[in-house]
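ROK family protein, pasting as requested.
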Amino acid sequence: MVTGDGAYIKKINRSLILKTIIEHGMISRAELAKITGLNKATISIQVAALLEEDLIYETQQEHNAVGRRPIMLSIKRDVGYVLGIDLDYKEIQYTLSDLLGYPVHHEKIFLDSEDYEEIVLLLVEHIQKYHKNCSHSRYGLISTVIGIHGTVNKEEEDIFFIPRYKWHSKSLKSDLKEKVNFDLNIHIENNANLSSYAEKVYHYHKSDNLLNIILSSGIGAGIMVDGHIHKGYHGYAGEMGHMIISPEGALCKCGNHGCWELYAAEPRLYEQLAQRLDKPVITQNEFYNLVNEKHPIVYEEMEIFIKYLSIGLNNIINLYNPETIVLNSEVLQAYPNVIEKIKGNLVSSVSQYGEIVLSKLGKDACIMGACAIAIQNFFEVPELIFSDSEKHIPFTNHKIEILNN
Ligand SMILES: [Zn+2]
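Structure tokens follow.
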């Protein structure tokens, strides 16, 4: 090892102190010592260094009934920024976040193009704009994390495949690094992985074994095992939509028959409804209206949908024995008593799990996870906990604070 033991321990102590300050929002030196178990001299040296680096600041508490008013420490959240990008099909979302995960700017761009080169140039243009707008702060734009709705190679962070764009083997990270005219940390990550990470950081802090299932055009899953995102050998773990639940079933685009996402993702539900209601298509709003009207056909189809969803969940529960299962789905959000219905189907005495919940983050999960991972990397903390989750959502409602001035 290049670093000496002393330097290594110093680094560990620093990350423990930073993690604790982030988690508590405001904390005194004495409390820091108590929680971390570090002695007061160590706390004092580390805090002095963090003040010097401008990463934290001191405030005196307003009122304390007895004794001295303690000096409190907090993260200086506006000394640098991170950029989360959700590269979805035909739309790209950008969220600029401060160092405590609060969005300072959010925008959504709709695309006509599926052309890789064109989209790379668009990303570069936006990254450069955000970099310029953050240049007033001490650390500027620190890094960007891009969520991809497809598979990402673990080592090189290359895109292996994005089904809806039909992009195979694209080196997005190096293509961006080459075209961006300044030095920037860029990371590419699968959207379901980012979403599962966001669920833990913003909501389910203590849940180290968390499964996040996203039901949209297909089914994707982010798996957290013992507090870490489980990626598998290549980085492609979590493609649960292609778990076979009916060997004689319909042909899937992956080449197999009877994949889970042919039965429990949204396109199949909408197709079935359109067919039975004798309409060319059913839009999302029409679906919501039909649910509100308690239309019997919609209720019948939803029961079938939930039955197939539960079959896949049963299999996954047996694989992972998860503490928390977060279901991220607009269809499920709209339907009454959905969690009770799913639980009612999970009757096996073998399958055990802690809880099943609907995501509170919804479509923001990917981009919030992107920002959170960038922040965790910057502070080099082992774990990130943003406690006041109510203030963090929804991203889309936040207005411009630092840009366009
Ligand atoms: Zn398949």
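Note for the archive: The longest strand covers residues 81-88.
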